[in-house]
Amino acid sequence: MDTLIPFLLPLLLLPLSVYLIFSIRKRDKNPPPGSMGWPVLGENMELARIGSQKLVKERMQKYSRDAFKTSLFGEKIAVLCGAQGNKFIFNNHCELFAPWSPPSMVKAMFPDLERTRHLEPKATFYNFHYDILKPDSLKKYVPMMDLLSYEHFETKWRGASVVEALPLAKKYALSLACRIFMNMEGWDHTGDFLKSFSLLTKGILSLPINLPGTALNRAVKGGRVVRNELMRITEERRREMREAESKGEDLLSKMVVETNEDGEYMSDSAIANVFIGLLVGAEYEISSLITIVIYYLAELPHIYNQVLEEQMEIAKSKGPNEHLTMKDLEKMKYTWDVVRECLRLTPPSLGAFKESTAEFTFAGFTIPKGWKVMWTSHSSHMNPDYFQEPEKFDPLRFEGSGPEPYTYVPFGGGARMCPGRSYTKLVTLVFTHNLVTRFRLEKVIPNEKMLFSVSPTPAHGLPLRLHPHKK
Ligand code: HEM
């Protein structure tokens, strides 16, 4: 036996040392601090209870100002915080991260993406639809936005003593997007589509549990109706465009006739995916922003008065039936600063998710490959190091050179920055012009609570008493 010991010892020690090396390396790997919450549920209940703004603030105070871990939508997530976190993610989009969306979003919005991706034409059309969202392409739509806004206020607001702002903003944002991107009028107002669209947007960020009665289940059903309708419209438009042999000006008409280098058309399903993405961005985010702008204008009369003054100047410079143009919007400097302050204090988007494609280190913490990574606007927008008295509504903070880089990020940054930001600016300015030049606003519920579950929403839809200006 004694003679075997020199041979057995290394055999016994080898696994032990491998185990020790791995466990020491594992300990060295220092993941960000935080809690994964409940099994399966993670911290989703907490997110629903206290909202994203508070969740981020509390975790940063409790664990680290640089990064914390959590579990949301069924995934392990590292949240990188502050301007440094934003900078790290925005500058490493291509090297370290792949785009990632919560499973609930993919299931409800793009259910056949994985199954049909390989059937799509080889050359990608990825950026094709982003051209229409550039300021140069959008400026011709400003008079139309003004006309539709005029019609919206004259039919839905004028004459009513009390209105509920949020549902009206949703209707407005959706019908405007349908008109601009698809040249469609009226059909989006019909009950079924609007109801299905609302079910879809309510459940896109939910737990990935698709059982009867869950938010995801309702979103999947709503998404199916929206998708079928978009596919039907695409098919019809394709036929019309071929028969007419003409080139339409709107995005849908262009997409159905567009071919790649190999002469292949985009499928109806791929086009429906593009439009679901655009319409959700346009309805969900813009209606949230418009409602927040109304909320602050009704809350802060001194801000309202200055916006009114700027907008009345512009209104007086126009002829009786003359619509707003891009030149007019360029003059709305104070109003835009007010909108920007709304986006800082109450950003419609809580941030964005990515998937790490390689292990990396940030602020001394190691984040493994495959984890989901998130940046959030709250972590820099509400930081007194970047914004003095961050709770205070102060549009003047955007004057001069404005906030430091990577601190003000309502639309993200870097390669994946929101392509809808110019569209958002134009739509919101036109809407605000038409609103304040018609009415003074009074909240029916003076201290109506804002709920911050996914995007911020007033608890009761923001009912308003309208006081039309005297002519
Ligand atoms: C208040 C308005 C809006 C806000 C606050 C907002 C915010 C954002 C944010 C934070 C992102 C993620 C950036 C990232 O992944 O790091 C994003 C992406 C995106 N947004 Fe918006 N958005 C708004 C309006 C819109 C509109 C109106 C559209 C379309 C008409 C739109 C289309 C998109 C698209 C297609 C992406 C994905 C970009 C990509 O992955 O490359 N958004 N948006």
What this model shows, in words?
- The protein has 471 residues and is α+β, with helices and mostly antiparallel strands.
- The chain has a domain at 31-109 and 350-411: Uridine Diphospho-n-acetylenolpyruvylglucosamine Reductase, domain 2, CATH 3.30.43.20.
- The protein has helices at 5-28, 44-62, 82-91, 93-96, 103-109, 113-116, 135-138, 142-157, 165-182, 191-203, 215-244, 251-257, 268-299, 301-316, 326-330, 333-345, 378-381, 421-436, and strands spanning 67-72, 75-80, 97-99, 162-164, 351-356, 360-362, 365-367, 372-376, 439-443, 450-451, 457-458, 463-468.
- The strands form four sheets. It has a five-stranded mixed β-sheet with strand order 1-2-8-5-3. A three-stranded antiparallel β-sheet has the order 4-12-9.
- Helix 8 packs across helix 18.
- The radius of gyration is 25 Å and the shape is globular.
- The relative contact order is 0.15.
- Bound molecules: protoporphyrin IX containing FE.
- Protoporphyrin IX containing FE binds at residues 99, 133, 277-278, 281-282, 285-286, 289, 347-349, 352, 410-412, 416-420, 423-424.
